[in-house]
Amino acid sequence: MRRKCRIWWPIELSATEPTSSFFLFGWFTSSSLSSLDIVVAFACDEVSFSPNQSGLQGILHETNGSLSASLQDKCTFSFLGHCALDLSSNGQLMAIGLDEDDQINTIHSNASTGSFHNMLMEKNKIWSCGCRKIDGSLDHSSMVFGEENNWVQLVYGSHGYTGRKIRWIPKLHHIHWHGQTVSRFDLHVILYETPMFGSHHFSVGSSEQVKTPLKKPKWVEELHEKQPLLDLESVVMAVNSANSAKLCFEKLVGSKRSTVWFSIVCLCVTLTWQLLAMFIASLSTLFYIVFQFLHVLCSGSQSWMYLTLGKVFSNTIKNIQFRCSQILYWPILLKDNVLRSQSCVEFAEKAALHKHSMWSSVATEIFLGYTFGIALFFHAESVCLWASNSANNSTNYLLRNGCVWLMGVPAGFKLNTELARVLGMLSLNAIQIWSTLWFFVGSVFIYFVKGLAILGVLFGVTTPAALIMDMILLATLHVSTLHWLISHLYSYQIQALAAFSRLFRGQKWNPLRERYDSYDYTVEQHIVGSLLFTPLLLLLPTTSVFYIFFTILKSTISFTCLSIDIVISIIRATPYIKLLLWLVRPRRFPCGIWFEIISCQSNGVEPLDIDRLSDTCTPSEKSWQTTDTSGTRPSVLVSILQSNFLNIGQIVWPHYREVFSVVSGSFVASSAYGVLTGRRIPPSTLGTGLPSMMPWTFIPYKEYWRICYDSVFACKADAHRDSFQ
Amino acid sequence: MERDIYGNFSPTKPKWRKVAYGGMQPGFDDNHTDESFLEDMVMNANVVKRDILKVMLDSVSISQYLCIVTLVVLVWTYTLRSTINEKSLLLLDVSLLGLGFFVLLLTAEMLSFNLLLNCVLKISFFITGLYVLSPIYHTLTRSISSDSIWALTASLIILHLFLHDYSGSTVKAPGALEHPSFMSNISLNASIVASLLIASRLPSRLHVFAIVLFSLQVFLFAPLVMYCIKKYSFRLHLFFSMGVMAVTLAFAFTLHRLIFVLLLTLFVFINIVCPYWLIRIQEYKFEINGPWDEAKLCFDITE
């Protein structure tokens, strides 16, 4: 079986015509014996690169150490090999490895002498000898290249394709792999754009996210059963780490770029950043002081009044606590900077998104709250008027008229007039008492609306929303109470009827074993049951009509609160920073990869552009092909690595899934069952509105200010790094 | 058995035997039977020869209960027409209760003072509960029209009559072992609901209380009292039944001529036509028993 070799080649190297030969650095990964992945991270000119042997070893080791641990586990950063380029006078590629002396001379002429190049000569001897002289020199090279004696020799070529961005594509000459020299490979050159932080990266992605509208044929399933030849995850991770490896290597080698940014503009930018950081830190510290003060104040008192208020305004208090913890933790989260994970661009992107998530959500909520609060503050009068009008209307036309209607003959039901009158009078009295109480409260309603606006400006939009929710629940307390009463009546009636009907069938419910037991009742029990069953059955329509009426009212209120709660949850769960970045740069959210094939030469079929290829091929290459492949040419495939990108639903939905996880079929079914049997009042909150709340801690104010300042100022460095890259 | 099989193995063909778990017998089909298969069959083993006079006498208890129900319905009708006022109704209740106790005391074999006290206590509780509940019954069906109430009552009474346990009584004498069956419970339920429905049409609470008490007394205790009388002396039972039938027919005649005719026809049908019919169809009776029947217990398992 022919071996497969994939070369992951940065497209930047192919963008310009090389002027001299260069050395390649990157990773070897081999998931199976028959396949080999060579990820080329970067190349280094022979001219500029002249360290000694031990220095190179140390540099490689240190560079490897700076990469992420999961990549280190899978493969090590190493000196891959050499890409030769020798332009002779007639413009043709010269054979490398044909003539040993010539090769050595070339190396000599190109590079300065040194111990490393002595080694290289030894090395060259290995690969240039056509695999004849694998003797003691292997031991020597293994000192440099670790336990695996791997060496790649590439040559300049084009594989019959040149584009605007791609001037040349390397050709594989041969590979020393575990001490063997192999040149017969099915070659697959994959050109990739080196991932940069802030620009793009690659991600394997999960298979669920890629939609397959068609039914999969059988061979796809067979393909899944096979062991994958390609360890794609580690390769993609290596590709993502290429840039940081390059930066690290260049820093260690000492070829410094001139990165002097010393100008008046730079100074201005720094000053602005400092001012901004100070402003934000001071503002945040102010909030923090107020919150700490309130926290101390509230946690001290445990009186009856405090507990009742806590129950009534539970949603608001939860919301404010959440906001407090956000205020407390955003600088800590923003400052949190794990350097190790930054080497792989994919991880760095994820870390950055996580880092910026909290402050962005706080900022967006404050902004929304500011808009809402300002609008509310200037329209407080009309809002107040509208609210009191609608409250009056609903009380008069809905509640009072509804109760009076139920006391008559509602919808043709033959109700028991006495019971209906009792229930109706009870409801009307409760409504009257409650509306009288609220009449006095109505005079301070305008201040409440203004307070709501101020709360929105200060705390963000979700806090006044939660307060509105609480106030709706408080203002409709009479409906809730009446519903609670009548639902108790109704549920007891239903249960009694069910128990009697079981009694007449000679059964009883055994709650311990949760089953029906047979029950031999006495005639006395039967007669009492029968005497009670008849009035209960005949009074059921009256009770159920009242129950239905109040259930509809209560459900409407609950549904209103539920929708406010859902809106709050959505506002909280939305990943604003991701949305913003997706709008600006959708390439930063890859999901799966694909290969755009630009040139293909299979071994069975002669390539179409055989003439052109034979023109460009040197005689030596031709001979190598003919001698080594014994008639069949190795197939060469050139493709460009492209990524799929997430759409907006795929970005947002994972965040919302937790919010809506409560609303399932069983939840709806159990709610409906509870409503029908009168045992369960429809819930007014989802219950999972809040993400996991972090514990409340105390940091000294000065230190808190310092953390805020540092974290905001650190963002400047990030921004600078982004622009620099 | 094995020895038997091998012993019968002779040059002549082996005899076919009837075995339950023997498998196929050599030389015979799987479904082979011979003339010895139905040897053990018994025809009409349990059939009782019935006498027409005895059947007619037995059917008297059905018509007697029909009479009692008819009397209750007549009392309902008269109360709704305000022919009977609540005081006479209460008097009727008390007299019926006393009469019932008297009959029970006379006929029952073993009655201790404790059982009697227990019974009186229960009845007093029951009466008190009924008196408390009567305002609720009073207004229960005010919004429902009288026609639907009458229709419902009539159907419930017919249901009660069909499902009633005529052989014994739903309310047992104290200390009885057997529990009432499901059908008789349904029948009792139907009668109680019917009486409550009728009671809810009455003008005053005392009316309601009296009529519910009356109908419950009759529906609950009349079968027991009749059962006791029948057990005590069949002749007394016969005389009593005749007397009740005569009284019922007399009241029906005063109420409406058509009801009288209907009732009379019904009595004739139950007491004469149905027994004759039964005797006539008795000769078509054909039942077979054999070794294939499941085993029957010939003793009571509770003893």
Folded structure, characterized:
The complex is a heterodimer of chains A (about 725) and B (about 300). With about 725 residues, chain A is an alpha/beta fold. In chain A, about 60% of the residues lie in helices and about 15% in strands. A ten-stranded mixed β-sheet of chain A has the order 7-6-5-4-2-3-1-8-12-11. Chain A is elongated, with a radius of gyration of 38 Å. Residues about 85-150, about 205-210 and about 605-630 of chain A have low confidence and may be disordered. In chain B, strands 1-2 form a two-stranded antiparallel sheet. By secondary structure, chain B is an all-alpha fold. The chains are: A alpha/beta (about 725), B mainly alpha (about 300). The interface between A and B is medium-sized, with 22 and 29 residues.
Terminal CA distance of chain A: 44 Å
Main β-sheet description of chain A:
10 strands, mixed
Oligomer classification: heterodimer
Helix content of chain A: 55-70%
- Note the overall shape of chain A: elongated
Quantity of strands of chain B, as a count: 2
Content of β-strand of chain A: 5-15%
Secondary-structure-based class of chain B equals: mainly alpha
Share of β-strand residues of chain B:
under 5%
Number of H/I helices of chain B: 10
Beta strands of chain A, count: 12
Order of helices and strands of chain B: HEHHHHHHHHHE
The residue-averaged pLDDT of chain A reads 73
Mean pLDDT of chain B: 83
Distance between the termini of chain B: 38 Å
Organism (chain A): Actinidia chinensis var. chinensis (Chinese soft-hair kiwi)
GO cellular component, one term (chain A): membrane
Protein name (chain A): N-acetylglucosaminyl-phosphatidylinositol biosynthetic protein like
Keywords (chain A): Membrane, Transmembrane, Transmembrane helix
